[in-house]
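BUG: 3D viewer hangs when loading the predicted structure for this chain

Environment: internal workstation, default settings.
Expected: structure renders.
Actual: progress bar stalls at 90%.

Input used:
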Amino acid sequence: MYLDTFLGAIGVDAGVVAKIRSNLDAFADDIGGAKLPQAGGFGGSSAGHRMTTETNAAQEFIVSAMQDLADGLRDFGINLELWQEDMAYTDDDAAVQIQAIQKVQETVAEAVRAPVTVPAPGGGA
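Structure tokens produced before the viewer hung:
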């Protein structure tokens, strides 16, 4: 049922898009605002130093990836709204074309239903 509401036969309801966008923004805020705990040290040995360096690099990567995910969710929400606007325009454009085709069909149907006068044999008046 949700898919029917989302896509609809004549376009996407703006209220549905607004709700999805709101959810995406909330998810993005949650992800972008998450704070990872700072990793502790691994001692003064060379192996401990390498572990600390690699752990810090991994943590920076994860924080950056989470921010990219948050940005992606926000961008998706923006593009969803733009797509909904495009779909509304496309639906309006298609409706105009369909109405033009229907008028042609009605005109042809009226012409077919109109009485046909057939001249009498022998050309008499």
